[in-house]
Amino acid sequence: MAAKRKGTPAVFLDRDGTINRQVGYCNHPSRLRLYRFTAAAIRKLNRKRIPVVVITNQSGVGRGYFPENALQETHERMTDLLGKSRARIDGIYYCPHAPAAGGEGCRCRKPGTGMIRKAARDLGLDLRRSYVVGDSPSDILMGKRAGTRTVLVLTGYGRGERDFRRAGWEVEPDHITRNLGTAVDWILADRDKRGITE
Fold first, then answer.
1. Which tens digit of pLDDT belongs to each residue from 143-175?
2. Catalytic site residue from 16, 90, 135, 174
3. Is 56 helix (H, G, I), strand (E, B) or coil?
4. What b/e sequence results for 132-151 when a residue is b if at least 16 CB atoms lie within 10 Å of its CB, and e otherwise?
């Protein structure tokens, strides 16, 4: 009997504060501003044929701050802007739910693993050989719970989290770095070190 083929290792990216500037609730597509290094970083992953998947909490929908179609238009703008720089996202998964009072809420909301596990099933991805990049402890905790390696970036909320709230983190990231560009460089080097060639 043939051995079961492993899935493909991927890089999962938080959106606000990682890919684009953190502006609170991004309630209109025009407010989305990519960081200057974002397209080049994603393009590096594309060239290595590493799937790039966005995993984002968007509770503004559940809180009634903006409709779901505004979120979809924002994601269209993001993919269009990246496409103009020859960078590609392979999937976008979002949780539109507001957090439940006194708890984490639904299974999909980070740090829950619902979104990342759905992406892995849909796209045939191997979480154990994958990476999560984000600016929040919830990104890191989601990645750890799903079995990935994790990188905290200091853009968005990352610097404040590291400097003022680190004592309260449930888990530490595998690496902390300046931004998505330096995160991708570290990931590619770490993949080489671990012998991940797919």
1. 999 999 999 999 999 999 999 999 999 999 999
2. 16
3. strand
4. bbbbbbbbbbbbbbbebbbb
Q: Is 30 within a domain?
A: yes
Catalytic, 16? Answer yes
Mean pLDDT for all residues in the chain: 94
Set 14, 135, 139, 174: catalytic member: 14
Q: Which CATH number belongs to the domain containing residue 28 in this structure?
A: 3.40.50.1000
Strand ranges across the sheet with 149-153: 91-95, 52-57, 11-13, 131-134, 149-153, 175-177
14 as an active site residue: the answer is yes
Q: How many residues does the chain have?
A: 198
Sign of CA dihedral 25, 27, 28, 29: positive
Number of domains in the chain: 1
Q: Is the peptide bond before 51 cis (omega within 30 degrees of 0)?
A: no
* Any domain includes 1: no
pLDDT digits (tens, 9 = 90+) for 101-140: 555 568 899 999 999 999 999 999 999 999 999 999 999 9
Residue 56 lies in a domain: yes
Does 161 reside within a domain? yes
- The pTM assigned to this predicted structure is 0.95
* Residue percentage of the chain with pLDDT more than 70: 95
